[in-house]
Design goal:
- Helix 4 runs antiparallel to helix 5, helix 6 packs antiparallel against helix 7 and helix 19 runs antiparallel to helix 20.
- Strands 8, 9, 10, 11, 12 and 13 form a six-stranded antiparallel β-sheet that branches.
- This protein is of the alpha+beta class.
- It is flat.
Length: 825
């Protein structure tokens, strides 16, 4: 809704109302709404007259206009009356809710009548609405179903009903009712053009019923009412606004609506009178249109040019006044302009924020009126001093503001006229509190850095990018026998022995050439040179700092003579312990027997972290009646302790197996043994191979699955009940039993037992590695007799596939392959 606005300061002066950025004159909007109500009322009256004709069965009223060949159908008359009433209520504005609801219901009725008729035309069926109340006695005029309105009439009523509903809802955009309103009017105008130009094809379409002439007139009026119902919104707002857009739009609209029909009528009249033929009339019509619209275009251009020129002059004048203020407002410094009497002529936004005053409270006043008294006196004195000197003045000062004391850099300079006489004072005040604080903090940081450098426990030298010493702490005297002052300006490589200076300089140069050098510690083959000529091993920490001016390198040097001596002694002790551990490992591991009836091959690879010392073990134990026990285990951890536990377990398992204990009983005994050891955890698997029964029985204590390759069959994993590692039962406070599992094992089969060092790698899936082991075993031994030589080659192939780099492997690896010959030995 629009509202009347008044110009501030001019009582009673009316101005154009602005809606969505366009200016509107309220009287014009009121006149347009009145015209819309009149159009809706007139259209509804046309329908009402026809409706009275149907009720009274008077043909003259049905046709309304004299000489009309087609009468308005009863349904058409009802719909037009409903639409006229609905639009009249909606355009009127403030009405009661019941009246508005009735108006919307009337619009729905019109739309429903139109939709039902279109459905009848589309389907060819009769829905019984054409002669619902009255029998059509005018059907003989024209063709079509009796009582059924023309298809173009039905389409127009459907659009008009939907548009009327949209016009009555403020939340719906105006174009949703105005565009369909134009379409409704266009359908009516098409019929009127047909009557004006005597073109019957525009009255009816094919064999369908034609549109009555007064129906077309009613549709034109209803379409106009729809378009004008909300004149300050949508396309209508473009036409009726008080600006240049509206004036041009109205002029062009009237030209387009009036001129082409008149020209067309004149051409047809000339043809009918025989003044000219069809081709000449067409040429005249085209030329006349071109002439008329050319005149319209140039008239429009002239109006637009005057508008643009006036707008440009106004914009230039406004811009001249805004440029200085915009510059000042976007400057972070405080900017002001005062006349020679000290009155403020202009200030920027930063000035307002610094004093906490609005611009209106400052302009026209003096310093003492807007600033604290002391600050105002100082500001006025500074202005007078600058004017007396006659040139710009710049100074730093501490000012007490309402928000606290701040450091400022003030610049004052006079503004002069063409004769050179000053007429105003301009000031630019920059807040440099943060910069001054940063300078003071930099000074404090420098002092702290000097104190930290001098108190560092190691000798520290700072060089430039060329390796020249620029600073050193007092600790260099203790380390090199030279004072810090003597070292400044010298090359840092002169602190190394002469024979090693080239290498030391190359190392420093390579570090500085790195794109992103990071702190690094070097201690291999680096030596320092004391003032007395003696050499000593050193550790050097190197880091760099990039600045805009230069690159600084920090060198922290430490004497590691004692460390080298301790490392040598430790290496000697380690080698001695390694030899002892290696001897112990192999004595505890023993050598499993080679059985003629059960060929086998094994590989053991110790971790590089503890060469020759680990907790893996395996054993092959001959039992009675062609039964053989096979055991593989892994003690968690490395070193002598793990090897000692391994030796005890090997002896205990050997003794238990000799008693004929089943795998489950053996695991239970070993679990009790491990539980007596402090903080030990062991995984192992024990198998009993019965070559007479062709069967294998196994029990696993948290160990990896056993891989089996039967003759002629695929590689598989021997299933076993899940068991916990040895030593877990006691530490957890509960006892989980160890259970056996038996599987058939025909002659010619091969078994692979291993520890986790063979298949476990950082960043890989252990299940995938076990699959690699199984696939390699199958491809190597499929359809090959399980003799010792074949098993040895297969063991080498498996180890090379799963542990390609034995020099860097960091876990113990145990692999045992056992083959069952085709025939018992």
């Amino acid at each position: 809704m629009t509202r009347e606005q008044r110009t501030p300061g001019l009582s009673g002066a009316r101005r154009a109302e602005r809606v969505d950025g366009l200016p509107f004159h309220p009287p014009v909007l009121g006149a347009v709404r009145t015209a819309a109500r009149a159009a809706a009322l007139t259209g509804g009256l046309l329908g009402l007259v026809s409706l009275a004709g149907w009720i009274s069965d008077t043909d003259a009223l049905k046709k309304v206009l004299p000489g009309a060949a087609v009468s308005m159908k009863f349904n058409t008359a009802v719909a037009i009356v409903a639409l006229g009433f609905s639009l009249w209520v909606i355009v009127r504005g403030a009405v009661r809710p019941r009246t508005l609801a009735a108006a919307r219901a009337a619009a729905v009725l019109a739309a429903v009548l139109g939709v039902l008729t279109l459905v009848e035309y589309a389907t060819g069926a009769s829905l019984g609405v054409d002669e619902l109340l009255y029998e059509d006695t005018t059907a003989a005029v024209g063709t079509g179903a009796p009582g059924r309105m023309a298809p173009n009439t039905a389409a127009a009523l459907t659009l008009a009903g939907a548009a009327t509903l949209c016009a009555g809802v403020p939340r719906v955009p105006a174009w949703a009712s105005q565009i369909p309103g134009l379409a409704v009017g266009a359908l009516g105008m098409l019929r009127l053009y047909g009557a004006a130009y005597a073109v019957p094809e525009l009255e009816r379409f094919g064999a369908y019923t034609g549109m009555a002439l007064h129906t077309a007139l009613a549709l034109v009026l209803l379409g106009a009412a729809l378009f004008l119902a909300r004149p300050d919104e949508g396309p209508a707002g473009l036409l009726w606004n008080a600006g240049t857009t509206g004036a041009l739009g109205r002029w062009l609209f009237v030209t387009v609506v009036v001129v082409p029909p008149l020209l067309g009528w004149a051409v047809l009249a000339g043809e009918d009178a025989g003044v000219f033929g069809v081709r000449l009339s067409t040429a005249l019509l085209v030329c006349t249109h071109v002439a008329v619209f050319t005149a319209v275009i140039f008239t429009t251009l002239a109006v637009g040019r005057r508008v643009e020129a006036a707008h440009a002059r106004l914009e230039w004048q406004v811009r001249q006044n805004e440029l200085l203020q915009a510059f000042m407002d976007h400057t972070p410094a405080v900017v002001f302009i005062k006349d020679l009497d000290g009155r403020f002529l202009a200030v920027n936004t930063t000035f307002e924020q610094s004093l906490g005053l609005r611009r209106e409270q400052v302009l026209g006043r003096r310093d003492r009126d807007v600033m604290p008294s002391d600050l105002g006196r100082r500001a006025r004195a500074a202005d007078l001093a600058m004017l007396a000197e006659g040139k710009p003045v710049q100074r730093e000062e501490l000012l007490a503001l309402p928000g606290g004391a701040r450091e400022f850099l003030s610049t004052l300079f006079p503004l002069t006229d063409t004769s050179g006489s000053p007429y105003a004072v301009c000031g630019v005040v920059t807040d440099i509190t943060d910069r001054v604080a940063a300078q003071r903090e930099a000074q404090r940081s420098h002092r702290r850095f000097r104190a930290l450098l001098e108190s560092a426990p190691d000798a520290t030298l700072i060089t430039d990018g060329d390796g020249t010493v620029v600073m050193a702490n007092p600790q260099v005297t203790r380390l090199f026998g030279r004072s810090p002052g003597d070292l400044v300006g010298t090359d840092v490589v002169h602190l190394a022995p002469v024979a090693r200076r080239r290498r030391h300089g190359a190392l420093l140069g390579a570090y500085l050439r790195l794109r992103d050098p990071r702190p690094v510690v070097l201690d291999r083959d680096l030596y320092g040179l004391r003032d007395d000529g003696s050499e000593f091993p050193v550790e050097v920490s190197v880091s760099s700092v990039e600045s805009e001016q230069e690159t600084l390198v920090f060198l922290t040097v430490r004497d590691i003579t004692e460390r080298r001596r301790a490392e040598t002694e430790r290496a000697e002790r380690y080698e001695q312990q390694r030899r002892i551990a290696y001897t112990l490992q192999h004595s505890l591991m023993g050598q499993p027997p080679r059985l003629t009836y059960l060929p086998s091959a094994h590989r053991y690879l110790a971790s590089v972290q503890d060469p020759g010392v680990g907790g893996d073990w395996f054993d092959v134990i001959p039992l009675a009646r062609r039964r053989t026990g096979v055991l593989v285990g892994d003690v968690m951890g490395r070193g002598l302790e793990a090897a000692a536990v391994m030796g005890q377990l090997r002896a205990a398992s050997h003794a238990l197996a000799r008693t004929g204990a089943t795998p489950g009983v053996l695991m239970t005994g070993l679990d009790a043994f491990v539980s007596d050891l402090a903080d030990q955890l062991v995984t192992c698997v024990y198998l009993v191979i019965d070559q007479e029964a062709n069967e294998v029985t196994l029990c696993s204590a948290g160990h990896l699955p056993v891989i089996a390759l039967p003759p002629g069959g695929p590689v598989c994993r021997l299933g076993a009940p899940v068991g916990v590692p040895l030593g877990v039962n006691d530490s957890s406070g509960m006892s989980l039993p160890f259970e056996d599992a038996s599987h058939p094992l025909p002659p010619g089969s091969t078994l692979a037992l291993y520890t986790d060092g063979l298949v476990e790698r950082p960043g890989t899936d252990i299940e995938a590695q076990i699959d690699v082991l199984a696939h390699t075993l199958g491809s190597e031994l499929k359809d090959v007799p399980a003799d010792p030589e074949t098993l040895d080659r297969a063991a080498d192939r498996l180890l090379g596939t799963l542990v390609p780099d034995t020099a860097t492997h960091d876990d113990d690896v145990t692999l045992l392959l056992v083959g069952l010959p085709e025939a018992a030995q």
